[in-house]
Amino acid sequence: MVLLLGCAGPQAEGNFIEGDVAGGEAETLNWILAADASSFGYVGYTLESLATYDNQFNIVPRCLAKDIEVSPDGLVYTITIRNDLKWSDGSQVTSEDYVYTLKNLMFSSWLNYNYRDDWEEEVDGQKVFVTPKVVNDIAFMLTRQTVQPEFVYTLYDLTPYPKYIATKYEGNVDAFTQAKEFNELSYTGNLGPYKFKEWLKNDKFVVARNPDFFLGKDTGAPFFQEYIIKMFGTSAVMQAALEAGDITYCGIEPQNVVKFKKIDRINVYTVPTRGYNIISYNQRANGWEGLRKREVRQALSMAIDKDTIAKKIYLGFAEPAYSFIPSSSPWYSDETVLKLGVAPLNNKQKAVEMLKAAGYEYKENGERDVLLDKNGKPVKLSLVTTPGSDVVESMSLLIKQELAGIGIEVEVKWVQWPTLLRQYMMNKVQGSDQEPRYNNGPQAVSEEPWDITLMGHNTDPLAPSGSRVFFASDGGLNSFGFFNDNVDALFKKIRSKNGLDKGDRKKMYSELARLISEEQPVDFIVYTRANRGFQNNVKGIEPGINMGYNYHMWRFE
Amino acid sequence: MRSYIIKRLIYSVIIAWAILTITFILLRVGPTSPVDRYILNIAAKGQDVESVKQAIEARYGLDKPIIEQYFIYMGNLLQGKWGWSFSASMPVMELIGSHWIYSFQLILLATIFAIVLGVGTGMLSAVKRNTKFDYAASFLSFIGISIPGFWLGLMLILVFAVYLGVFKTYYDTRFPIWSLENLKQLILPVITLGTGELAGYVRYTRSAMLDNLRKEFVTTARAKGLPERIVIGKHVFRNAILPLVTIIMFDLGSIVFGGAYLTEIVFGIPGLGQVSFNAIFANDYAVVVAVTLIGTFLVLFINLATDVFYTYLDPRIRYE
Amino acid sequence: MNKGLALFLKKITGPFYINRRLAKYYLDRLKKNKLSLAGLGFIVLLALVGIFGPLFVKDPQKSDFNINNLPPLGFSIQESVYDIKTDTFTTKVIAGRPDHPLGTDSKGRDMLAMLVSGARISLFVGLLATGIAIFLGTFIGVLSAYLGGWADNVMMRFTDVMMTFPFFLLLVLIVFIFGPSLAIIVLVIGLTGWTGAARLIRSEALSLRTRDFVTASKALGASDARVMFMHLIPNVISLVIVMATLSIPGVIMAEAALSFIGLGDPMSTSWGTILNAGQHSLDTAWWVAVEPGIMLFFTVLAFNFFGDGLRDAFDPKADI
């Protein structure tokens, strides 16, 4: 009788409201024009990419029909998509759309996709794009000329534009930018669990349940009528809203976690994140010359106690970091890295001895001895950073306190973000008329002298070699001037056919992590944990670093 | 009179133009640039910052010389084309069109609240001078002008929304403007925004009323046997009102972008205050200039309207 | 020049001290207002604390993370630190200590020292910015009134432009572009806040201009400058003093508001900066927000009481 109803899953009801602070709002839904992560995030609610990752970094296919096939020589990637994907006008999503998006949009010169570098390779000194080609309706392939084992991770994020709409605007940047279909995501068909409903800037982004969602056929997903992202002007009010039950989910600041954990109605999940902090030591000619010595850098890092930072600034929601590979990464290995800054290598006395061994003297000065430089003057290091973040401010002052513990005076300089970028991080060879860049080679120096800066960074646990922007000699963000042939060689090896074998790659990462931790061009400080607060009637959550991967299965109960 | 109004209108246009130019110059010539926001994102992903920067600038016409950009922009403005907001990815006019109502309702209600309650209390205070009511009103109004608005807002939310649960912690745009729910959720923001002015009006009205109560025409009116209600309400008040109008108008100008913005931030009301300040932080000059233009015209209009209104209030005032 | 300055100063203070009866008269009127005196008392106390206080307290910039988040003496708070490995919290009870009577902030800086140095900063910002604004306003107002005609027109139109420019928006714009330092904030507030003073003073000066003593002065051969400085200005001085006193709280609040939205000088320990940092920890470190909030409130209140009393004292029509 009535039992002829198909799916016996949970009913779809209620609105899921996520809280976010004003600065995190997306810039555009026309994702190919965006440079901020939020924009891609917003679009993702309506368009699934080829695949995503669960908390253990297993590949979970979405638009892919099966995992990407890589040829044995690592040069050809074959992608097969599902055959039940449709655009809003009912037409099928084919590999034509994907190839068109790559060739005519992302690789085009009239559109200037911000992340085109991910799809380029260097051949004979020139930068060329990989070659996409349609195989059949549901399969296409990408051919490279050089091997890059981690290229596959870029592929998983690929999302298509509909060719039948994009051709209308092809060649005309203005028209493309202002195209209604793209700014209102009206083409997304069954490609996502939700469909765009409305977006009132600075207020809320609303998507409505998509009953046609291709993953919803068997499961009935998603289970919320609407998914809403509500913007708040201050985090204090956002957290008050969570407490009052007016929103379903938001991030919780470390000092408020205890309070929220005590509230029955709310579940707080403490999860690892991709974020980490580093202190970079200026090894270019306009920093303190001691920083160009490895032993000195090691000594400084030894003096900065990571547990103290984790406890005092993050209230325990952070773990010490020793390399650019987080512990959640499949490439992480603990054994070989040099663990400076935690016991037993956090002994300030030992740090002092190391400095003395490196040829520096101390002078008595009241209760604490002061470190002298080669000219007999007390060492004074400048720490340059931007104001505005309480964490950054605290960390700067804590570093100052820690280094004072080994007799080094630190002067904290607060400059605005653009000034930091232009006058401290960008550099060029003095006297030349080079265009300043973040890394103009070993002879380049920045406009203003500096010794230390604090930087926050997001790493990709699956493809940590992305961090080569910091540590390779031609790394685009190598503003602190670290040039090491062994490190360069290893990065190159990973991104070549030698890295194809996963076992080999892990060994190479291990070696790289060890090398960099010994050289200490930067001091890796901590990997942070995030606290995510949910009303306790939300079920289906799997806490972890990628806990959002199955959000379409979440429901109220 | 008519020539006066025309002269004032011409002045208004010139003033508006001056302000627009200053705003444009500040935003475009300053050391900050719209690209600053993404530079680290892009560099961190290993992309070439310079070429991305050039691409973004070319896309939004930012690579032309400043003078050219200025004239292009002014030309477009005159034609009613307010441009594209790159930080919000929508036409500026649409952005403003979808947000202005929230600011407007907040400011209007707060002003009415402040005027009605403030002037009313002030009048009563003057009539009942030196009674407990008077002292209480005075004292409370001092407190009212001394509390920082953003602080008051935060406290109100914590007490009434979190602790007591009477109101929602944030403003929900789901409710139509002309609905009871919308009115309810505007209560706390209106109190926050209006308290400062309200306190000022209480004090001002009180002292203006007291000034006039001593005047001769009051004794005359009383001697004529007019009921006290009419003496106060009609005669005394009408004389006090002129400078009060000046103050109200001045306040309006100042809360439009100051207090209203802070209130919008605390309560999460998506009005023009939020829009304009987010645009400033993103160097989105099209939006900032547009919002400034609106504010400027609003103030100029109110000034002119008030000056004209004066002539009705006080027949002795004449312009040529 | 020096002789002229001395004479000028004497002219300002002169009326009060040559005519002791007049001075005493004003003082008596002032004294009758108890609240006003209380306000003055608080201000004097604050000034003393601001000027001499830093000598007696610790260094407000010295941070010590070993003693961060200490509650004030007599209070205790629970501090929980999370342990990732065991997924549990270790909770300690921390009590206030006598060597940090008002507690410490999240970076271990002594609250008492910060509040004292904050007093210095708030007063400094308030006085300096107001000083600049009032000086400019008085100067332009008097000059404009005296010169009249074409010059008056131009200056007043310029004043209109400045007045119409949304003040807070301009403030945010400039601070955003040129960086949040106290110096810039003071300058911007000073250079944009003079319009009200200019207008009021100009109208006072205009009415004075027609008075006999000015005509007499000119008949005696006094130069324009002399008439302005020696006669007009001293006569508007009471108005200026009242305006100045009543503007100071507004300036202090504007600086606090700027800090609240993140544009304050992060290295300064002004009350606004401390308050802004404290709003995130209302549950766990409430004193960081409450203490500067109280200071701000009472300071603004004190200036309002005192300024109000001053105004009543100088106003011949007010019935005290």
Task: Name some characteristics of this structure.
heterotrimer, A: 557 residues, alpha+beta, Dipeptide-binding Protein, domain 1, Dipeptide-binding Protein, domain 3, seven-stranded mixed beta sheet, globular, disordered N terminus, C: 320 residues, mainly alpha, MetI-like fold, two-stranded antiparallel ribbon, 2 strands
Quaternary state of this entry equals heterotrimer
Q: What percentage of the residues of chain C does DSSP assign to strands (E)? A: 5-15%
- Tell me the Rg of chain B in angstroms: 24 Å
Secondary-structure-derived class of chain B: mainly alpha
The counted number of beta strands of chain B is 2
Structure overview:
The complex is a heterotrimer of chains A (557), B (320) and C (320). In chain A, a hairpin with a 5-residue loop joins β2 and β3 (59-61). Among the domains of chain A are: 48-176, Dipeptide-binding Protein, domain 1, CATH 3.90.76.10; 274-529, Dipeptide-binding Protein, domain 3 (Roll), CATH 3.10.105.10. Chain A has 17 helices and 25 strands. By secondary structure, chain A is of the alpha+beta class. Chain B is mainly α and 320 residues long. Chain B has two domains: 2-91, no CATH class; 93-313, MetI-like fold (Orthogonal Bundle). Chain B has helices at 2-29, 36-44, 49-59, 66-78, 92-127, 132-146, 149-163, 180-213, 216-223, 228-257, 259-267, 272-281, 285-313, and strands spanning 84-85, 90-91. In chain B, strands 1-2 form a two-stranded antiparallel ribbon. Chain C has two domains: 32-69 and 104-314, Orthogonal Bundle (MetI-like fold), CATH 1.10.3720; 72-100, no CATH class. Chain C has twelve helices and two strands. Chain C has a two-stranded antiparallel sheet with strand order 1-2. In chain C, a hairpin with a 4-residue loop joins β1 (76-83) and β2 (88-95). In chain C, α3 (34-56) packs across α4 (111-147). The radius of gyration of chain C is 24 Å and the shape is elongated. Chains in contact: A-B, A-C, B-C.
